[in-house]
Amino acid sequence: MFRVLSSLDRAFVGLDTALRTLAGSRPYGSGRPSPADAGEITTSDSPGLSPEDARQAAALMRVNHAGEVSAQALYQGQAAAAENAELYNLLQSAAREEADHLRWTEERIHALGGRPSLLNPVWFSGAFLLGYVAGRMGGPVSLGFLSETERQVEAHLASHLKKLPAGDAASRRVLQQMIADESEHGLNARRHGGQELPALVRGAMQSSGRLLTTTAYYI
Questions:
Q1: How far, in Å, CA of 75 to CA of 79, rounded?
Q2: pLDDT reported for residue 31
Q3: DSSP class of residue 35?
Q4: Is it the case that residue 113 has pLDDT exceeding 80?
Q5: Under 8 Å CB-to-CB from 63, ≥6 apart: which residues?
Q6: Contact 53, 122 (CB under 8 A)
Q7: What is the rounded radius of gyration, in angstroms, for the C-alpha atoms of the chain?
Q8: CA nearest 56: which of 113, 118, 120?
Q9: Dist. CA 18–CA 127, nearest whole Å
Q10: Which of 88, 96, 198, 213 has the fewest CB atoms nearer than 10 Å to its CB?
């Protein structure tokens, strides 16, 4: 059972999440084990994955990790502006599963010999602001924003499944579970009254998403 948090409580929760996300200690997740551990983990030292393939996989997972940094910020921004306890708790529940994604993608980056995006503070700050603005527009809009975000993320992850090197089965399992979670989060938002966003807003969200995915692949 969740208790109702005051505005000050919410501010501290958001600050704690920001520090944990950006400092690498990670927000509190649901505790699920990584899907990568369900089988033999493929690393850059594995005979089935060449150095070039490992670099490509690490870059793709860096993009996905940056997306999860943004997801934490979006949820916390929306939660900070949530108009009632039910909406706040719904957002925090989804954020805990997204925190699992943050951990899983970071673990894969390191296993592949890569590093997280150097621009994570930028991604977090911008996403928090967007989430807060969406939250201030009321529950249906906030949930619609969540639903559209998850839809776009789901499509992006599906494209990465096609780009992953064939030998990186561990990252593939991670992305498959993430897709299932994103789909459920979006469906849950619509069940709770999320409204469809205007085409102009959806297009702007896609453009900002492309900026992150293109930049985080390299930086």
A1: 6
A2: 76
A3: G
A4: yes
A5: 117, 160, 212, 213, 216, 217
A6: no
A7: 17
A8: 113
A9: 11
A10: 198
Please report where in the chains the tokens 């070039």 appear, as a residue. 52
How many Å apart are CA 169 and CA 164, to the nearest integer? 9
d(CA 25, CA 76): 17
The token pair at 140 is 């249906």
Nearest CA to 73 out of 120, 29, 30 is that of 120
The torsion angles phi and psi of 8, rounded to 5 degrees, stand at: -65, -40
Q: For 156-209, write each residue's pLDDT tens digit.
A: 999 999 999 999 999 999 999 999 999 999 999 999 999 999 999 999 999 999
Q: In 81-216, where does DSSP find H-type helix?
A: 85-111, 120-136, 139-163, 169-191, 199-216
Exposed (0-12), middle (13-18) or buried (19+): which is 163, by Cβ within 10 Å?
exposed
The phi-psi region of residue 32 (left if phi > 0; otherwise alpha if psi is between -120 and 50; otherwise beta) is beta
**Is the backbone of residue 207 left (phi > 0), alpha (psi -120 to 50) or beta?**
alpha
Q: Work out the pLDDT band at 32, boundaries 50, 70, 90.
A: confident
Whether 2 shows a pLDDT value over 60: the answer reads no
Token pair for 94: 């989804």
Distances (CA, A) of 152 to 119, 136, 145, 182, 193: 21, 22, 11, 9, 19
